[in-house]
Protein 1
Amino acid sequence: MAKSSTKKQKIKKEPKKDWEMIEYIDYLDDPRKQKAANILAYSGYRPDQTVRGAITSAARAVGVNRMTIYEWLKEEKMQTAVSEAKAELCAMALNGLRELVKEKNFGACAFLLERLQPEQYSQQHKRMEHERYMFELEETIKSKLVDNQTPPTIIIEAPQLTKDYDRNKLD
């Protein structure tokens, strides 16, 4: 029996199209630039920070080299287009969030409360408050110690086990 050699061909995957084109960016003369501006906005591109894959995704989607995207981003019109697309995207997201809150979606409500009043609802804020309290407590204890004396040990006794759960008895 002769072995048949089959080579696996790499299939180029098209980028997911789970984003909606923002059409009003008509002042860009090239439709590829319009599409790239939308993709950059959806991917969270910021000129002052590196967002992994944003430039590459935009370049692949419009069929140009990554360097071309960087060149386009030097143009003021392109920068404005990305900013406007982001603003539109934020407005769409807020409208969607508003609708979910109206429908009493717990996740949306929790998200909104954490953002609007983090001191009251944010778990991260509460954790930071706890860490600050523990640090201040530790510093207070250190300041009360004389000559690097070891702090007193606080012993908290666990409640006694009931007869039913006595570990020494085997039934």
Note: The chain has a mean pLDDT of 76.
Protein 2
Amino acid sequence: MFRLPALALLLVPIIPKLELTSDTSCRFVLCHAVNSWYNVFHSGYLFPPHSLASSSFTQNKHELVVYMELSQALENIKQIGDNFAKDEVLCIRENKDTAIPVLLDIVRNIADNFDEIPESTEDITDPAYAMFLLAEFKVHEAFDPIIRLLELEEDECDWLLGDMITCDMDSIIASIATAGDIKRIKAVVENSTLNEFQRYAALKALTIMYSEGIYPRAELVDYLGNLLERFADDEDFISWIVGDCKDISATEHYARIRNLFKNNKVDTSIIGVKHFAEDAPLVSEEEVLKRIKEDPYTKIITDTIESMNWWACFKENQKPFVPKLPATGNKKVGRNELCPCGSGKKYKKCCLNK
């Protein structure tokens, strides 16, 4: 009658070495079963205590606890909750080699199966934590599924990624990309079926890669010149290209840019012509690189906690907020609409769960 618990004990050294997958129910049952049997055995009812005091058994017990904690942490980060999941991030960081395959599965499953997600669901796996952690760990294998998420149709991309499109995707992509991925990133920049924010995220990723020494300045300047010529009549995107020229001080193109302003091609609410005046002060490449690296919105991801914990949806100790609905009182605030609280964030990233 004691064969089952004995078998469970034999499995203790194996469990922590099993590859984690998204299907954790069986392992959780086994983990808890082994944990329970350990407590029974440790009481001395079935084996004398000295048989369980060996260093190997203690080590296996520790590994089992770590495994169970990591499994729960990986499960918890699949949703954006009221509080930033700092403990979970720290646990995953400490066990990153084991966690990376699961993080990859999260983003791959969404990229591969996005068409199968019901439009009405609010309970989909949120890729935010996984994407930031993969970027922090510099996991190149994440590039393909993440760039595919950025290439989703405009409404779908906005529904899934929200403010991350304009605030974070450039840094995430630059953190996991290599020089061999530049062609794929350019394809997103030049894809006119996407909106200007998706395309600009890809363009800014190239700028960050330049600041990290991955993409030579001369090649980036030439590419920006090509974009200025090809998309001069793209009123939604040309202003962002011009802005990028300013960011890297691409003086080689300032005369052309002044001509674009003269012909009313550039949205002056986005950027003004004064930056490109003939007598505009020259900025050294050293200063350009310094600005890019110090700007929290244009640098590679090195710390998931630093990159995420300031989000409005994670602000703690706020008074409960009831969104002020339109006068009719019947309209529901959409996930992707601006939050009525005035934070500037989308409703789903702010007061949705309050």
Note: DSSP finds 17 helices and no strands in the chain.
Protein 3
Amino acid sequence: MPEQPAFDIEDARRAIEGAEVVVVGFSRFEERLLLDFRYDAATPPAVKVVPAVSSVEERLWFLQQERPQFAAPVSERFVFFTWAKTVAEFRESSVWRAIEERIRATGHGQVLSEAHDAWGQLATREKHQAFSAVKGEHFKTLWREEKR
């Protein structure tokens, strides 16, 4: 099996600092964190938990439905990355700090509460996923206990 490239936290920070739209996937559940840093006088940036989609085109369509006042982001300013660690580790990382800094820099500090709410939703989702795994719900058992 080919070795996976290491995750570069500095690349993720640069994405947060420079992209218009960032989508963060998590390895333990399907939902995504959508960070749309575009704003105008009437519309602040958006931070929300969104369902996974099957393609970039589908995500762009979703963005047009959710925020029609903005043109679709150009590909160089639209970034997706997967965070392989826990949601708690994401919150403690320099990537999360970059998200908070970027939101503050827009002058829309109230969006920080949306970011914290989104983090709470992600943490709850991860906990439910872990409970489901322990209970065997929505997971296939690889080794079954032999009946005696």
Note: The chain has one domain: 9-135.
Protein 4
Amino acid sequence: MWTLFALSMGRYFYYLNKERRMKTLILSSVLATSILPLSAFAQTPPPAGNPTGNITFSGQIREQTCVIRGEDANKVVIMPTVGTNQLVRAGDTAGETRFTLGVSGCGASSNNAVFLRFFQNSGFDAAGRFGSNASNGARNVLVEVRNRDNQIVRADGGTAKLSDVATNGSATVDLTARYYASGQATAGPVQAQSRFEITYQ
């Protein structure tokens, strides 16, 4: 009888210890899985941004400013009347008109040259030709200005070298204006305006 009792008690303590070990193992596993993600997803804070930078100032000092010739300060270029049959397709041109812009007091130097810039005008296309803003004006007609080397002087603020300065500090800019068709032209007036600036360097 005592032998049976001893065996029963032994089995009781065996299962009791086994259950405690299992609970301890399960609790340890739960703690491990709860702690691991925190260390796995921990991130190093990004480095602070650079608080410094660079700035460059660029310019040029000139001797003096050119003076636009009096009669050219408010220049009016009268272009001829042409027929719509001369401006039929995009790229057709007509009515070439030569004109000049003069300056003086530029400061004579063998290295100085005159530069022309148009700005604040009646509009322009991608190639820099002037758009017309005439009331009830001709459609599909632009005004193209070229220099003595037959290069377009752009209406959109581009600066073009046009002439060298003479020994007396004066210069004359030779230009040509003409109608340019962007398609079949229609009848009507054409008018384009622009401010211009002549500098030398």
Note: The chain has a mean pLDDT of 75.
